[in-house]
Design goal:
single chain; alpha+beta; Lipocalin; eight-stranded antiparallel beta barrel; globular
Length: 150
């Protein structure tokens, strides 16, 4: 009987310990919520790195400041915004672009629509601190790593 009580107590302590374990944030929220958050301001990102596999070229792109100082914002309302940073790559570039975004295909892709032009990006990874997206074209692929502004 005493052995049965000890086994019961061990089992209860184990269940209590497992029940108190913290579940990682990424497993408690949707991909959309990780990207945009849930407040009206949305979440802002910048491109921290890029990999290409285009025209038989493979490797890491050396990104210029005119790219890395741009801001990409996902809003919970599905609004999407790209803003030129302080340094422009082309003097005639508009100050930014507005569009919409949506997570699609069972949360494996993100659709970004600007001026009726849709781009589909494969979601490679997403966390509360950033995400990695890959776009396939007829000429190859480009992968961007985006990080959140703190």
């Amino acid at each position: 009987m005493k052995a049965l009580q000890s086994l019961y107590m061990s089992l209860m302590c184990s269940l209590l310990f497992i029940g108190c374990m913290e579940v990682p944030l990424e497993s408690r929220v949707t991909t959309s919520n990780l990207l945009a958050g849930d407040d009206i301001a949305g979440r802002s990102y910048f491109i921290s790195s890029a990999e290409v596999s285009l025209f038989n070229l493979n490797g890491t792109l050396q990104l210029e400041e005119c790219v890395t100082d741009n801001t990409i914002i996902y809003y919970p309302s599905s609004r999407y915004e790209e803003n030129e940073g302080r340094t422009k790559c082309e003097i005639d570039n508009p100050p930014g672009s507005l569009g919409t975004w949506a997570v699609t295909n069972n949360e494996t892709e993100i659709s970004i629509v600007i001026d009726s032009d849709e781009e589909l990006w494969k979601i490679e990874s997403v966390t509360s601190q950033g995400h990695t997206l890959t776009r396939s074209t007829t000429d190859g692929e480009i992968t961007f790593v985006l990080k959140r502004f703190d």
